[in-house]
Amino acid sequence: MNSERIIKKYPNRRLYDTEVSRYITLADVRDLVMNSASFKVVDTANESDITRSILLQIMLEEETGGEPLFSAAMLAQIIRFYGGTLQGMFARYLESSLDLFAKQQQEMAKALSETPFEAMTRMTQKNVEIWTDLQEDFMRAAGFPLGPDRKKDDEGAG
């Protein structure tokens, strides 16, 4: 079943998983996330999609529960992007970076089971290339000029 799982949030703050026909907790929703389940949380009062709000609640619980993922400085930097001209670009950059990190984590686990040293060398080289490209795309989109070496590469490619 590839369809999106629907979770309903009722005015009494309870979450109801329509797939298993029972009330669930935020911990259960976290488990869905950890298992890469596709779901959507809908507010029954107005049928609005509140998935992001629920995910932010889970993140807040995680951040206050143990070793935080985000430092105060990092959170302040993220907040500064809200409402700015680069907000959308920053969101795409962050999402791409996280996607890349997750893919590389999977590749790393697979590669380390085969030839660890070669895998690390190959992944390090690939990382440098990908991060360089991401940063250059970000800088180009922000209107910053690229260095003379990169301009030559771009002109030679055209």
Automatic annotation (TrEMBL):
Q: What is this protein called?
A: Polyhydroxyalkanoate synthesis repressor PhaR
Q: Name one Pfam family in it.
A: PHB_acc
One GO biological process term: regulation of DNA-templated transcription
State which gene encodes it. phaR
Residues covered by the PHB accumulation regulatory domain = 70-108
Any idea where the PHA accumulation regulator DNA-binding N-terminal domain is?
Answer: 6-65
Q: Which InterPro entries match?
A: PHA_DNA-bd_N, PHA_reg_PhaR, PHB_accumulat
**In which organism is this protein found?**
Thiorhodococcus minor
